[in-house]
Amino acid sequence: MKRAFVLLVLAAAVLTVVIDRTLTPLAPLRAAGSAVYGTLENAIGALTRSVGGEQRVRLLERENAQLRADLLAARQRPAPAARGVAAHVVGFGQGRRVTIDAGTGAGVVRDVTVLNADGLVGKVTWAGPATATVSLITDAGSSVGARMAGSGELGLVTGVPGEGSLRLSLFDPNAPVKVGDRVVTLGSAGGRPYVAGVAIGTVSAIERVPGAATRTALVRPAARLSALDLVSVVVPDPGR
Length: 240
Fold this sequence. Notes:
six-stranded antiparallel β-barrel; 2 helices
């Protein structure tokens, strides 16, 4: 049975050669095969280049995130000895916390600012050798000193439990505020835990409470905290 199969294969090979040389050349078939193979090869090459390109893009994004934090630290007055560390969010936890892939090995410590390209994310509340935990500004226990970008009025921004939003309490109960006003960080002493001038969000609604000692409003966070990826951490830099 096996011998018959081998003979059949050999006969088919001989017939193919004969047809190719005497009757109908198989060049068109070879060309078609070459085109298919070439297309496949090009597709594989493009995929390889795409993967390499994606890696380069991610590298550039990390460098950009680090530079963003560096520039922000340099604008502080008085300027603290600080630098930027780029990190990716690698886990979401309960209580409005996330895990990033940078820790003490990269200089990340507790009580430092975390932000992204859009605005304030939160602060580091725990740091291990290779990872760190970030408490988001929407956490119920979060409080951030704030300033109205236009009027300069001062206040405090706290997390609203279960809503993913923020509440702004202005110290002056008669302070002017309207929907769409921008809110930025006031800044902490020494830039920790929060550096100054980072976008917190925009006013989305005014809360009217007669006789209240403060003026309050709801604020929509500038950063999309439910879709975090690349972040910047402003860390102390003893070398500067």
